[in-house]
Design brief:
With 251 residues, this protein is an alpha/beta fold. It has helices at 21-32, 45-57, 72-85, 110-131, 158-178, 203-211, 220-231, and strands spanning 12-15, 36-41, 61-66, 90-95, 135-144, 184-190, 242-245. Bound molecules: NADPH dihydro-nicotinamide-adenine-dinucleotide phosphate.
């Protein structure tokens, strides 16, 4: 029997921030496609257990690991625990965990800037530089950036925009560094996606929907589909790319 090109049976994956939102959708879909998936979370232990149970319900395997990426030591320890739990093998890394905190120049508190740098930039850096020591040749690194990796289309987002531009920069550098090992590295850049961080109800949501050509928020599973495609053997010639999934927002 030939396996489907999107099939991930036998692969192992680590998703950071897999307890809720886009990360949880990635865990579920990668597990559904056959991968064994470890994921980290910081605060949402109950939701993390639900993600584990959802995977088990369709015969998949997901493993929850508590690791606050804001602390480099804990980020490194989280990767080590995940790799242990995955039997020492890692094929796919999805750097998803991130926070968005907005405020105009002069108004954004320094600790808010530092938190975003810790999680969105240093968290990705320490996770990846640790994981890459065991990542299999031919493996995949998928960084969840944002449409803010391309443009900063609203005021008050210089700090978040800076962190997501940094993600795109790491992607391009690592794509070159890891090409000899046939490891691909890409940034998925979501537009507005309906999660706890960006609810699709309310006045703010209406203003966002009005400027999205497709007229709606995206759903976490739609981002997960792109992540799972990039994780598959179908995407072997895509590396160093920033791929928008934004309903046409930046068109
Ligand atoms: P959510 O707030 O819904 O979920 C965030 C996830 O990241 C949770 O599982 C959370 O776990 C985890 N997380 C947050 N901080 C930490 C930390 N310090 N250590 C470990 N895990 C952490 O966010 P989204 O799903 O919306 O966002 C996911 C990614 O997508 C982010 O990188 C975000 O910037 C990006 N993005 C989102 C968009 C959107 O519109 N939703 C648009 C563009 C990009 P816990 O609850 O356990 O702390």
């Amino acid at each position: 029997m030939t396996s489907h090109i999107l099939d991930l049976t036998g692969k192992t994956a680590l998703v950071t921030g897999g307890s809720r939102g886009i990360g949880a959708a990635c865990v579920s879909l990668l597990a559904e496609r056959g991968a064994t998936v470890a994921f980290t979370y910081a605060k949402s232990a109950e939701q993390a257990e639900e993600v584990v149970a959802r995977a088990a319900a369709f015969g998949g395997k997901a493993i929850a690991i508590s690791a606050d990426l804001a602390d480099p030591m804990k980020a490194v320890a989280g990767v080590e625990k995940a790799v242990d739990a995955l039997g020492g093998r890692l094929d796919i890394l999805v750097n998803n965990a991130g926070v968005a905190e907005h405020g105009s120049i002069g108004a954004l508190a320094n600790d808010t800037l530092e938190r975003q740098l810790d999680i969105n930039v240093r968290g990705v850096w320490y996770t990846t530089t640790t994981a890459v020591a065991v990542l299999a040749d031919g493996g995949r690194i998928i960084n969840i950036g944002s449409f803010f990796s391309e443009r900063v289309p609203f005021p008050g987002s210089s700090a978040y925009g800076m962190t997501k531009h940094a993600v795109a920069g790491m992607t391009k550098g690592w794509a070159r560094d890891l090409a000899a090992r046939k490891i691909t590295v890409n940034t998925v850049e979501p537009g507005p996606i309906a999660t706890d961080a960006n609810p699709e109800e309310g006045e703010r949501a209406k203003r966002i929907q009005a400027v999205v050509p497709l007229g709606r928020f995206g759903q976490p599973h739609e981002v997960a589909e792109l992540v799972a495609f990039l994780a598959s053997s179908a995407a072997g010639y895509i590396t160093g790319a920033n791929i928008l999934i934004d309903g046409g927002l930046l068109a």
